[in-house]
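Hi everyone,

Forwarding the result from last night's run.
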Amino acid sequence: MTDPYDPSSEGAQMSFDGRMSYGDYLQLTKILDAQAPISQAHDELLFIIQHQTSELWMRLAIHELSAARETLQSADMRPAFKMLTRVSRIFDQLNGAWDVLRTMTPSDYTTFRATLGQSSGFQSHQYRMIEFILGNRNLSMLKPHEHRPDLMKLLQAELERPSLYDVALRALHAEIPLPDSALRREPGRPHEENDAVAEAWIEVYRAPQKHWALYELAEKLVDLEDYFRRWRFNHVTTVERVIGFKRGTGGTGGVTYLKRMLEVELFPELWHLRTKL
């Protein structure tokens, strides 16, 4: 009989007394102690972990979107394209999480739904931050966060910055001049579709070799919104599959509210130009 394989024989570190280990670096004790089911329901742990991991992915999305916005304002905006691609893949990962949650049946959910109280994903400040960065800026959506001055400060600071699409339009303006109406508006207000912006993007798409960086930027933005829309759609179908048309725990119209969100377009000119090409 041969002896069991010993990784230390090839140099693997096996002793971590006073040295940084995998668990130390990732602070796994904090992460794995962060699940505190209130009920005895088997599926409550699934529900908690699905939402906690989603929040971690959203944290990374905010990190990447913020860096992309800053990079788009530099002399060379191309490094931002990798960041935008990463955010698209993050939302692909978030989409996969719905597949796991959909293994929870309506009967499973009813065993612990009452323990949630008024808590709801509708109240996620990180999701709100992502919407604000992308340009979907609705001041009424600050209200669920008024009980947390620290979160309000973060969200209000974001509303004072140009959105990701605002910065993209400034890059567009550097090559194809846009009117002031397309560039100057209150930062806290959402972008409204503009004919001049639409025509400028059409010019980019009709001569991609001439405007390659802008052309690639436009497609990265469309790709990002594509994945973001899929995430929203999967959210709707998951909720409808689990609770039907009941009201959400946070008081929203549930599926009805979520379906309304599907109608929101972040970069409308980039989607509508396809019809005109």
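The longest helix spans residues 212-243.

Cheers,
N.
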